[in-house]
Fold each of these.
Amino acid sequence: MTSLRVRIGVLTLTLLAGLAAPTADAATDPATGAALTPSLSASSSPTVEERRLDGAVPQEILRRSGFDALTAEFARELGSAGSYAEARRLVLREGSALWRRAVERAQGRGPQGGDLSRDDDRPLYWARLTMTRQARTWTPGFGLSDTRRAALVDTLERTSRGQTTVHYPHGRKLKRILVTGFDPFTLDQDIRISNPSGATALALDGTVIETADGPARIETVVFPVRWKDFTDGTVERALRPYLRKVDLFTTVSQGRVGRFDVERTNGAWRGGSGDNDAIGVTGTVPVRDPASQPQWTTTTLPYAEIVAADTGRFPVYDNTQVTEIPAGGTTPVVRPDGPTPGSIARAGGGGNYLSNEIAYRATLLRDRLGLHDVLPGGHVHTPVLQFGTGNTNPATGTVTDPGFVRNRLDIIAQVRSILTVAAKGRGLG
């Protein structure tokens, strides 16, 4: 506990600097200079996503991981905050502590807190929502404007997702890899759902892998499954400071049953499926400088080497399929071998949901920074994380089982192997 508090104290200095510089597009908290993310509602009512907390499954996950104690303590401390400055210091500290606690739990350090397996990403997800709901609905004894309330929620979001603590030690011999994951989604279909990309982020954050070209340190961040956050630039805000500094990056999400896919092409189109706030959006992916926006971006990961390697139990495919409206046409056409010249995107290899969009945004940012030819990066879809035999019914099933845990651990291990191959394939030495 003492070492954790020391690390948090050091991190707070970094966080205060990192949260103080507003982006060009963001509103700014007049008290602190912190950039506000417009996607975070200033309303004091819980969001659709936060209202799922009241179900039995989220509460069981929190209880069986010990994260319920963390959120209860946060609620007590928030309730006793006597000023906005005090509340802000609290959310800075506790948001980063929540991320670190989740990482340490996943990597076998610190208390397990209950009988849920350590590789489980769901305690972090439900604890974060508990804390954002507490901040959103809190009625302090002092005046709290909508702008300042939004700043508190924003700080919780960023710090508890690892977005403010990416750190690579100095030294030329240590290569740098950046990996992203996602929250659980499709929760209205099965609220028990875990996301193996989020679990992978927790398992790999701060770890070092040995490649043929020497050691490489992995840093990770996690993103929400919400269209509006992406519209408001959460991906670029989190990744822009690091892409010039890393040797390889991979965005990761959950894809199809029984297989990994390295997505060759990403499309500039949103297909409209509902997100974790039950909002669907259709249209061209909104980015800065849309006049120069391409319809397609491509991976620079060494996909041939990844596919050829023995990385684990699941097969890995080089997925080249897209859906396009051909030049001069009006009807979408599925192309198995990638887009044709002048076509309009309707789906990348990874579809037209937020997994495609994070891949599109990250690779577009890579290209706009002039790094296309020097920085390997792209998207990897993991297999769907399935529950074990006899535990597939959401209404009657349990929140975990041995097959479920084994599947998640195998996916995590295979992502690690894929990263090792990718580092070797692009000769990071």
Amino acid sequence: MSKVATRFAPSPTGALHIGGVRTALFNWLYSKNQKGTFHLRIEDTDKERSKEEHKIQIINSLKWMGIKHDGEEYIQSKMIGEHVKIAKKLLANGDAYKCYCSSEEIEEQKKRAKQKKIPYVYNRKWRNISDDQAPKDIKPVIRFKSKIEGTSIVKDLVQGNVEIENNTIEDFVILRNDETPTYNLSASVDDHNMEMTHIIRGDDHKINTFKQIQIYEALGWDIPQFAHIPLIHTIDGKKLSKRDNSSTLDDYKKIGILPESLRNYLLRLGWSYKDKEIFNLDDSIKLFNLEGIGKSPSKLDMSRILSMNEYYIKNIEENILYKKLKEYCEVYKDKIIEEKENTIKSSLIFLKNKAKTLEDIFNNSKYILNDEVTFDDNDKKLVNDEAKKIIHLFKEKISKLEVFDRENLEQIIKGLIELNNTNFKGIGQPLRIMLTGSKFGPGIYDIILSLGKKEVIRRLGNIR
């Protein structure tokens, strides 16, 4: 058998969809597991909707996920001449025919099928009419002669045997009347020319698979193996669409989801290996198989993605985490200035505490990044006259400290609690508001020590 070769074939008509990312991931992992190759085909034959920026976004998104294709990108639009040639070969061999039906006729057929509540299938009007009966003033489309009798079976590597009545597959168009090829022709020709051994894609392509196999058979080509993955649904069980806020890879990047955690989550979305949940890259390649893919749609669960991301943030080496935070801020937030870098690095141990995203870490870091504190009006109201008195006392006491460390700070706060007959919150909350602008955030000792004595005194001096 040939060396395993798979492909991912997106259309550059929009941002890369999360379902497409998972399809690419499964193809890539299967190829790597089988010591084969993985290829990227850009299906850019829709001239009006295909955009160069979408192509670049797709390539960069896959790279960000760690999914690297072998060889150069295969650009479908460069192969149109080959597709047309094959369409005409099928016509010459009697496996296709010219159809002169007008668009109005086709619409009328579709309307009648809808009224009868049956699936539309082209009525094959021109299938057996000779060319000399053809109208001279109409440019025909070319339709493939699909099988009319019997049944066809696809031995699906995920779904098992899938059977269909041949008469339900219409004589589908392979070449439009402007001589542009259709998807099923182009995909078949490209997959053959690229020597693909396995076609792994969404199960919404099942009907296309039956059509493409007939093209392969008509041309005497080796037929690849097929695997159809159930689609991804929303948490409510509806089909995920591009209108959903969590549908594209960019939706995850801009809130600070790590590629490692998203890759791990998508691997487990519809695939399992025993009861294992966490997969590093080596494990993913070593353990992936098609047998572990389920047959039912998977539900995209944002809370589970955030939980997975929190695990990766917690366990990643801090130097690597800082690098990712810095890159994230440069693209989506404010750039971390050089003077703040060492403080952020040394503070990551607590800034990442309970953070589910890089955005959470950025928000926890704002009090370090911003020299001037801006106050939430509701929080500012909590700094009443009693709290101001406590802040003045705290400021006086730390001014006299020779050793500015946690132990001495704890002693000061303990003394203030006793002196003012209050509790830890009564001291910590107004201090946190004055130092960060919010009652929420890291622990008060972490805040004070990360800012340093001089900066704490400066910020507490803003009280009026």
Amino acid sequence: MLELKNIEKSFGNTKILDGISVQIQDSEIVSILGSSGSGKITLLNLILGLYNPEAGSILFNDKDITKKPMQERGFNIVFQDYALFPNLTAYKNIVYGLKNFPDRSTKEEVDSLIELLDLKEQLNKKIDMLSGGQKQRVALARTMVMKPKILLLDEPLSALDGVIKESIKEKIVTIAKDFKLTTIIVTHDPEEALTISDKVLILNKGKIEQFDKPSEILNNPKSEFVENFILNQLKIKKDNIYKLFNRGQNEK
């Protein structure tokens, strides 16, 4: 379990996170949802270990990791821009991290992941020859071969649309469930959050507005902000949001 206790973070005189307390259970898919400036990226980076909070603590499996260096936490992130090596093939990108940790995944495990992500036909291609969806799957594979304790995803669907977006969403859910992997996703899109997650953490100006199952957020929004944010962002009627939610649950 990952637990955040009374987390506070400021940059200069601006408080970005204010009293964030939340528990994320093992194997849960949790989306951190909010508009620009809500603090969601800062929270993700604190969990990853890029920097430390000014106050509060971060616990993982009941151990305090608040000041533990990023490289010792065992959490891995897929960045929004994928951060792939353009001079390497898809396969060499996938196995890149295994050069320093050759025992982390066997060849059979790597091959199985490649099969799961439908990348077999892309392995010998350079990165600039791949589509956005293929790049996202390569980035996922590269992260997964390192067997992270927690998978962090920064806007994983923002550059995708249509069928490709739905396919990647399905792959993320499949990976999380098959590997029993705690997965934390940052997104500004309520549809993504509601249809992919077990729980959604809604931030507003550095504070938690609601942390709940998608069905609870839809049925029982805890504040006017939550209801307005969901409705205004989607710009559709509430019963259509239920259809989106139900579709996401069927995908799981």
